[in-house]
Write a structure and sequence with these properties.
The structure is a homodimer. Chain A is an alpha/beta fold. The first copy, chain A, has a six-stranded parallel sheet, sandwiched between helices. Chain A has a five-stranded parallel sheet with strand order 6-5-4-7-8, sandwiched between helices. Chain A is built from 17 helices and 14 strands. Chains A and B meet through helix 5, strand 2, strand 3, helix 9 and helix 10 of A and helix 5, strand 2, strand 3, helix 9 and helix 10 of B. Strand 14 of chain A pairs parallel with strand 13 of chain B.
């Protein structure tokens, strides 16, 4: 049962509170993570072996999962799963490959030609969580754009299973992607290892991937301490559904629960201009949650969530933009009119037949998305995340005559005589 | 006189050392900056007034520079400077506006349509350094792409001059850009104020702009502590020139000095397959540096710099890619052949008549670029830096039949029953 707030009654403080998540900023996690980073920095591979034993009770025979290991594990994947992975792969590939565009040069003045070219980040590190859940979809979502971008070296860290092997579906995706740099390391120590480099694990320029709070904190810490680029900060997953009277309450409830089952700290927010719909969704939630294998988690997440009753779809969008959801679902009669009004969201799912789980696995869009309000400033992962756009300029002697006086005047204004000289000397 | 290393003699450790800059990671700056951030967080505007007095000896009458102030200052700008600013504005505008592209939708499967749309980051904060240098060009480089992106609110912080006013050229650019949120605050406290928000200064989602080591450290700190997005980490400016026998030694020397005059910690690296050219450049450096108003700074920077003698242009590019320069100049007979081999650089200047100062002011490319090796993972500022790319997907009932089984299989594989249900319930 979702606690319901009425939008027109919300004061600024309550609105701000409803839009705040991920408030657990206890120094405890940060201190533990800094300790792990220091340990990896000082002891390298030895720390990785020690920490796997300490945290996961796993005695690693090797840090690297060699190709014999990967191939043996991949062979265990049943045919129907291979087929599903293949469909997802194709869709993700075709959506992401369209993102790799060649831009035209611009002649900003006669003889002054400027353009951008993409260059792949040469070595990237992908973190694929393991432990309780296995997430081959995460490897697809990170590995495919990295391949399309043309990254020369793709490093993957993922925690081994209790028996010391890499999960079979993840192994199959590694095989599909042709990635042979896979290391059996999880947690904050995996992030530290890819940021700093160890004897076995290469130092990466940019790190990607979701994870628990330790992993997330480790990404933030290595970014600040070592200048390692990261895809984005991350928090618990979340969904916001904007629905009106046209929505099917059972569909909405199912979408909210798909988010809620991720974790007790996940948030599932319903925003509607229909009190009746909210009531109906609550009824469906109660019915559907009872049947879920992860009903304890989902129940906690729903208790942690809420509904907002608005007077109009405009108000619904206003609330959504203030919340800046990772996933935004539009299930109204006027979805097309709402799209231009969306200013902050990670990924948007339009219409009654577009469940959020489609984007998690197979529609083609990326599921690595900004949570916790970061959609105000960050995009989800795309091919762009794996390239740099380098600017180029070529000026002809004639072009320099056209642009030179401007450069000379501005360099003089800023008191940078040598900047001016670099132009003047070329006229002489 | 540049100290010269021979590429083929470099061992890995020396190569790594030559490619390392910005090594001053004293905890002193970090501690001072954290103190300032805490002060701004606790005392807001009061801290800003107090710190202006303490660090700059300026008694602020107001934090905001109102439009009367800006207009009065802008009116002081001489006509020839207005014209130069106008040319730069046009070129920067035309190059950056070409970056704003509309992408086509991709139908990844029949009935499954996916696309991306740009949305401006609503409130951005631009830092324009002041103090010893005045940098209207920085405001052009940040303000123009922010305007093109469509950012609703553009906040500018810049330190006031000793007389408590905003510099006239900066005021003129503010007027040109139509920005009326300008605050007379500099240093780490400006970064803290825009990240946290005060009574006067609005909290921004993303911060941009160069600055001294305190400003840079403050950006890194607010990113880690408050989740504020930043354009990129930054360090001292740098140039790497690849030149062969075809190069004009006087041009090369002028380009190296244009970098060197920025600061004693700037780096100007010459990479050449011609020992003769290196010798000639050294001779020109000595001659040219003596005439510079900032010769003390430039001399220190040159002492801090070096040349690398290679056997070939291929080796020159290899060294450059390892160094990952902010600015890369190609002054060889085979520039076009070298371009595809460039993997890491911020902005590239091609040919004998393309001085780096062209890109600083007026060619049209952005001068806010990754330094200190960050060009391995980061791009310079562009319109992309001011937008999010939101993904959208719309699936028809028919489309869900096509894609549904894939989603169901993968959700089951990952143990997420509610993800599967969100599809299944839509078939029923």
């Amino acid at each position: 049962m979702l606690k319901t707030y009425t939008y027109s009654n919300l004061d600024m403080a309550t609105l701000a509170r409803l839009c705040t998540r991920n408030t657990d900023s206890s120094g405890e996690i940060s201190a533990a993570v800094n300790g792990i980073i220091q340990q990896v920095n000082e002891q390298g591979d030895e720390a990785l072996i020690h920490l796997a034993q300490q945290f996961d009770g796993i005695r690693l025979r090797a840090i690297i999962a060699d190709s014999a290991h990967i191939n043996a594990q991949a062979a265990l994947v049943p045919e129907h799963i291979k087929q599903a992975i293949s469909v997802a792969y194709q869709n993700i590939y075709s959506f992401h490959t369209a993102q790799l565009v060649t831009e035209k040069a611009v002649e900003t003045m006669p003889g002054v030609r400027c353009w951008r070219e993409n260059r792949a980040i040469e070595r990237v590190g992908l973190y694929v969580p393991g432990g309780s859940a296995i997430l081959p979809s995460t490897l697809l979502m990170l590995g495919i754009p990295a391949k399309i971008a043309g990254c020369k070296e793709i490093v993957v860290c993922t925690p081994p299973q209790k028996d010391g092997t890499i999960n079979s579906a993840i192994s199959y995706v590694l095989q599909l992607l042709g990635i042979d740099n896979c290391y059996m390391v999880g947690g904050a120590q995996a992030i530290a290892a890819m940021a700093i480099g160890t004897t076995t694990i290469p130092k990466c320029s940019k790190l990607f991937g979701p994870g628990n709070r330790y992993v997330t904190q480790a990404k933030i810490a290595v970014q600040a301490q070592f200048g390692t680029a990261i895809d984005m900060p991350a928090g618990p997953s979340e969904v916001l559904v904007i629905a009106d009277d046209s929505a099917n309450a059972a569909f909405v409830a199912a979408d909210l629960l798909a988010q809620a089952e991720h974790g007790a700290d996940s948030q599932a927010v319903l925003v509607s201009n229909s009190a009746l719909l909210i009531e109906q969704v609550n009824a469906k939630l109660e019915k559907q949650v009872a049947l879920l294998p992860r009903k304890d988690i989902a129940t906690k997440a729903i208790a942690n969530s809420y509904a907002v009753l608005t007077d109009s779809l405009e108000e619904s969008i206003d609330f959504s933009n203030a919340y800046a959801p990772e996933h935004l679902l539009l299930q109204t009669v006027t979805n097309e009119l709402l799209i231009p009004k969306i200013s902050n969201a990670g990924s948007v799912f339009i219409g009654h037949y577009t469940p959020e789980s489609a984007g998690d696995y197979a529609s083609g869009t990326n599921h690595t998305l900004p949570t916790s309000g970061f959609a105000k400033a960050y995009s989800g992962v795309s091919v762009d995340s794996f390239v740099k756009k380098i600017t180029f300029q070529a000026i002809t002697p004639e072009g320099l005559k056209n642009i030179g006086p401007t450069i000379e005047t501005l360099a003089t204004l800023e008191g940078l005589q040598a900047h001016k000289n670099a132009v003047t000397i070329r006229y002489e």
